[in-house]
Design goal:
This protein is an alpha+beta fold. It has 2 domains: about 1-30; about 40-130, no CATH class. It has 5 helices and 4 strands, in the order αααββααββ. The chain has a 4-stranded antiparallel sheet with strand order 1-2-4-3. A hairpin with a 7-residue loop joins strand 1 and strand 2 (about 60-65). It is elongated, with a radius of gyration of 22 Å. The chain starts with a helix and ends with a strand. The mean pLDDT is about 85.
């Protein structure tokens, strides 16, 4: 009955047009600001913003990561920390795990001294890791 009234009054077409406009806005947002796009959709998102290598010592460098709260929630659900842990530490545990797995997959020594990891918070959900 509800759909019949919508058709009768033309509201079905108005709602369809609104949905189309909203979808176009989301598509534009996906291209301009992927982090905000995924956050609005309540989806996990992480990105490497920058990577630098120390010219004087090739063993040192840093990755600058950006993420949203849904990424941190996903990491917590997968055992990388608890809600009381700082986000930077949770993401750092995940990142160390990724690096360890890459070394292991390549048959390289995973037990080596490669310096230390310094986490510098840049904002609520962005840190520089060096």
């Amino acid at each position: 009955m509800k759909n019949f009234l919508k058709k009768l009054t033309g509201m079905d077409k108005v709602e369809a047009e609104r949905a189309k406009v909203e979808e176009e806005k989301l598509e534009l947002l996906r291209k301009k600001d992927p982090k905000e796009y995924h956050t609005r959709k309540k989806e996990s998102w992480v990105n490497v913003l920058d990577m630098k290598v120390n010219e004087d010592n090739i063993r040192n460098g840093f990755f600058e990561l950006d993420w949203n709260k849904y990424f941190v929630i996903e990491l917590i659900q997968n055992g990388y920390g608890t809600e009381s842990d700082p986000e930077e530490e949770i993401v750092d545990r995940w990142f160390k795990d990724i690096v360890y797995n890459m070394l292991s997959d390549e048959g390289l020594d995973t037990d080596r001294g490669a310096g230390y990891i310094n986490v510098k918070p840049l904002s609520e959900d962005k840190s520089e890791v060096s």
